[in-house]
Amino acid sequence: MNSYSIDSAWNQVKGKLRQRYGQLTDDDLQFAEGKGEEMLGRVQRKLGLGAEAFHSMLNDMRDSASSAPDDANGAVGAAKEKLAAAKSKATEVAGNVKDKAVEVAGTVKEKAGEVATAVREKVSAFTDDLREQAGESYEQARERAKTLHGDAEEYVRQKPRESLLVALAAGFVVGLLLRR
Fold first, then answer.
1. pLDDT at residue 66, as a whole number
2. Largest Cα–Cα distance of the chain, in whole Å?
3. Segments in 21-50 forming alpha helices (H)
4. Is residue 93's pLDDT more than 60?
5. Burial class of residue 17, CB neighbours in 10 A (0-12, 13-18, 19+)
6. Taking a C-beta distance cutoff of 8 angstroms, is the pair 79, 25 a contact?
């Protein structure tokens, strides 16, 4: 067999040639329409192979490239299986994470309820203390007002003239202030 036809598998054959023979460059393997035989002749000379051996090697590479889709299909199938397994594992992990998140959320909600109850009790106790203190302060102020009222009545009984003059002066000042 002294010929090789460049077809759709040329890119795969070209890759295999580059792998096997590192001295070949992209320029050496560049295919130009109508110049295929010339390019193959250059590569053959560069490799130092006979025509029969060179064409046989190219045909073997093309045949192995043609069978590569079957290998690729197998690899794709294996990759799909691995992808399905990874997807299944990811779903399982996501479910576990969701369950743990629900559990943690429940715990947080429970603790928040306990804290809210404790705060409510403290606020209630504080409010009760404030009411008690306010009641005591009111009673003290009321008693003080009664005492002052009694003292004022006693002063007026003992010194009626001075009380009347003070009341007139106070009324005069208030009148002046209200007039303005």
1. 67
2. 151
3. 36-47
4. yes
5. middle
6. no
Local structure of residue 60 (DSSP, 8 states): H
C-beta of residue 1 within 8 angstroms of C-beta of residue 52: yes
Q: Are 31 and 10 within 8 A, CB to CB?
A: yes
| Spatial CA neighbour of 18 closest among 9, 8, 29 | 29
Q: Which of 54, 74, 61 is nearest to 7 (CA)?
A: 61
The pair of structure tokens assigned to 79 is 């990759």
pLDDT tens by residue, 19-38: 888 787 877 777 667 677 77
pLDDT at 83 over 60: yes
Determine the 3-state secondary structure of 36 from DSSP: helix
pTM, to two decimals: 0.36
Cα–Cα distance for residue pair 173/179, rounded to 1 Å: 10
Q: Output phi, psi for 95, to 5 deg.
A: -65, -40
DSSP state letter for 8: T
Q: What is the mean pLDDT of residues 137-152?
A: 93
Contact between residue 66 and residue 12 where contact means Cβ atoms under 8 Å apart: no
Instruction: Provide the token pair at 71.
Output: 């290998």
DSSP class per residue in 94-111: HHHHHHHHHHHHHHHHHH
CB atoms inside a 10 Å sphere around CB 11: 11
